[in-house]
Design brief:
This is DNA-binding transcriptional regulator, LysR family. By secondary structure, the protein is an alpha/beta fold. The protein contains nine helices and eleven strands. It folds into three domains: 81 residues, Arc Repressor Mutant, subunit A (Orthogonal Bundle); 102 residues, D-Maltodextrin-Binding Protein, domain 2 (3-Layer(aba) Sandwich); 95 residues, 3-Layer(aba) Sandwich (D-Maltodextrin-Binding Protein, domain 2). Strands 3, 4, 5, 6, 9, 10 and 11 form a seven-stranded mixed sheet that branches. The chain starts with 6 loop residues before the first helix and ends in a 12-residue tail after the last helix.
Length: 302
């Protein structure tokens, strides 16, 4: 009788390839470095082939390793599909979700209740980080699903929701009349910061940075308090404390898209259920934000 491949060994092998290091693979699957090394040795002995070459620059697959990788991914997807089909309505197990730091509260308030209700046996592990860091974590195999800000080069990502980015000023303070406009800037590697700096440059505005924070809510508070202007997601703005800057100073014509990305190893049926839950939750979130009055249009309260 032909020997049977061990799915657990194949899962570890795929993770080693994705992360490029035994140590990172061990962290991703919650095993020791020695255990992962032993699993790779067992797999190579079972197949009678060298699967990878290791060097200071990382791991390089042999021809046998490349062949096995293709089949391994198919085996794991079939395994997930079988489990999903047999589980009928309820999905179980652990899934790791990556959530942008500035949307953590929305995820907990809107997304988690839907996931808990629709998939009660699913154990969610949540990691908060910047979108660009979440993309790297998913590529490294550390996450199963992530919600990320859309980038210009991003394609084939599922849109969950979108919102306007508003060049915002305090409602009762004419900061734009200053010789150098005081600006609050998001102090982190994210698309909102990039768009903010790009917009200031295009508008040829003379400005000075007076506030910086890695938390967008803090930047919004600086605007609400009358300390600075900034580019902010509309959902962070407090009615009657904020107004949109006039278009002749700087245009508010940008949209922030929040997308879902996912690991290739997730079964299609599992992904479908999760995406349905996320879309339901994003619709609830959108309606909740629409109940709040929109930001004041250009001008000054009377």
């Amino acid at each position: 009788m032909d020997p049977l491949l061990d799915l657990e060994l194949l899962r570890t092998f795929v993770m080693v390839v994705r992360t490029g290091e035994l140590k990172k693979a061990a962290e991703a699957i919650y095993r020791s470095h020695a255990a992962v090394s032993m699993q790779m040795k067992r797999l190579e002995e079972q197949l009678g082939s060298r699967l990878m070459e290791r060097s200071n620059r990382g791991i390089t697959l042999t021809e046998a390793g490349k062949t096995l990788l293709s089949y391994s991914e198919q085996f794991l997807q079939l395994n997930n599909a079988a489990l999903s089909a047999l589980a009928a309505r309820d999905l179980s197990g652990q899934l790791s979700f990556g959530i942008p730091t500035d949307y953590a509260q929305d995820f907990l308030n809107f997304f988690m209740p839907v996931l808990t209700q629709e998939l009660p046996n699913l154990e969610a592990r949540i990691v908060c980080d910047r979108s660009r860091n979440l993309r790297k974590k998913l590529d490294a195999g550390e996450l199963d699903i992530a919600i990320v800000a859309g980038e210009a080069e991003s394609t084939d990502e599922m849109l969950l929701w979108s919102e306007r980015l508003i060049w915002s000023a305090p409602a009762f303070v004419r900061l734009e009349e200053h010789a150098e406009i005081p600006v609050a800037i998001h102090q982190d590697n994210c698309i909102v910061r990039d768009l903010c700096l790009e917009g200031l440059k295009k508008a040829n505005i003379s400005y000075r940075q007076v506030f910086a924070s890695p938390v967008l809510e803090n930047v919004a508070t600086a605007v609400h308090a009358g300390f600075a202007i900034s580019l902010l997601p509309e959902s962070l703005l407090i009615p009657h404390k904020t107004r949109m800057l006039p278009a002749n100073i700087i245009n508010s014509n940008l949209v922030l898209k929040m997308n879902m990305i996912y690991s290739a190893s997730i079964d299609e049926q599992v992904l479908k259920r999760i995406s349905e839950c996320l879309l339901i939750a994003s619709d609830t979130q959108k309606k909740a934000h629409l109940m709040v009055s929109p930001v004041s249009q250009p001008g000054y309260p009377g």
